[in-house]
Amino acid sequence: MPTPQPDITNPLMRAPDNQESLVPYDQLGYLKWLIGTWNSPRGSAATGFNVMPLPQVNAPGGFVLKNFPYYEEMTFAPIAGGASNRAGAFTQNNNVLFYEQRVYFADNPAPQPAAQLQDMLTHAENGSWLCRTVGPQLDGAYGPGTLPLPSPAPTQNLTTQYAKQVSVPHGNSLLMVGQAREAQGSPVFPSTPRTVQPFIDPAVMDPNAMLQKQLSGLQQQGITVEKYIQIEVDTLHGGGGINNVLFEQQHANVDCCQTTWYIEFLSNGSIQLQYFQFVWMKLQINGLLLPFLHSDANTLLPAGGQYAPMRAG
User: Is there a domain that residue 219 lies in?
Assistant: First the structure.
């Protein structure tokens, strides 16, 4: 029986209608452009592609591939409050966007016609994006006054200003830390590394090629990227890291993760979001944990039900 198509236009989460964020939207930095709900095309128009190696003892090489086009929905919402890290004389303010993500099969990749996978949920996660700033600390637990800043005044390291906290129900928790920049013109996407399984095989499609394909399709319509914001974070720098449940450590351990997001402003006055993600894993093959790369990429557009201010600033 076919899986019903999910409604990917309504927000996946809601903030209280009578509470607005106490943090000015500008303090969210470039994250303010994400506020709202985003989705991507379904079916044959899908712009997302996933390459996922899976351990399997009776398969050649000890693994199989779960490669498929996908579509998804993401909602980003500010919170009605802040999250300050106290240093004693000053604070690091974490300006927060919570997010929810749902990913669905865009077609039926299984070889058996009876396996009705199209529109089935294949991945879900939630977490938060942070933009950090440095400022005065409250005098006492509640203020209302603040302590004088040390001299010289501390500043936020821009190379670790942004962070993504991720919770995946496989039993993985990730903290990725990094930076952002703004540039004119169109982004240039790196190729997925071909130095590790399964991308050693040239027949395995590079998901990042889907990003350029989508931009090329826009160019054929006379639409170009005028400027973009690039946010790149990973688990290797700025105190980032990964925790995996014991089962995953033994069979499919996630070693590190890196993702880059592009918020793109188009010549027709619209906005879109493109991203790619690399996840380096170790799969248990013949008793050894061997390195593999899981990669995916997609393009999303604003959907209905955005939070206000829609695209202010």
Answer: yes
* CATH number of the structural domain spanning residue 102: 2.40.128.20
Tokens 């399709």 -> residue:
217
Name the helix (H) or strand (E) containing 215. Answer: helix 209-220
Q: Does a structural domain hold residue 19? A: no
Number of Cβ within 10 Å of residue 15's Cβ equals 15
The whole-model pTM stands at 0.94
How many angstroms from the chain centroid is the CA of residue 173?
13
Domain total in the chain: 1
Whether the CB-CB separation of 141 and 98 falls below 8 Å is answered with no
One-letter amino acid for residue 62 of the chain = G
- The pLDDT tens digits for 94-133 are 999 999 999 999 988 766 666 688 999 999 999 999 999 9
What are residue 25's phi and psi, to 5 degrees?
A: -60, -30
Compute the Cα dihedral for 42, 166, 229, 210 and give only its sign.
negative
- Residue 287 within any structural domain of the chain: yes
